[in-house]
Write a structure and sequence with these properties.
mainly alpha, Helix Hairpins
């Protein structure tokens, strides 16, 4: 069992032990991802340079946990869908047009 599978089992057990599966619909998990992403952003609210790295890591872990749980409930492979999305991004943002620029793909 790889680390991702071990983590997935730990998340499943955590939710099952607390009878929280009933609350973890894909819609509720998407909301939770957004809420936790907001808390991650809050870590940088007043200072982009002097942030609490431990707090940032905690919020990143919360976002990731909800994403892993959501992927599990939707029966999708998070690694696979991310890999496919990266292939699309590589096409949308060719190096010769996008390097060093933050322009949206349709404006390159």
């Amino acid at each position: 069992m790889n680390r991702y599978e071990q983590l997935l089992e730990k998340i499943r057990k955590f939710n099952e032990d607390r009878d929280w599966d009933q609350f973890h619909s894909p819609a509720n998990l998407a909301k939770s991802v957004s809420i936790e992403a907001g808390e991650l952003l809050e870590c940088f609210q007043w200072d982009n340079e002097n942030f609490d790295k431990e707090a940032v890591c905690e919020e990143m872990a919360d976002v990731f946990t909800y994403l892993v749980d959501m992927a599990d409930r939707l029966d999708v492979d998070l690694i696979d869908i991310t890999d496919k999305k990266m292939d699309k991004n590589i096409e949308k943002y060719p190096v010769d047009k996008a390097k060093g620029r933050n322009t949206k793909y349709d404006k390159l």
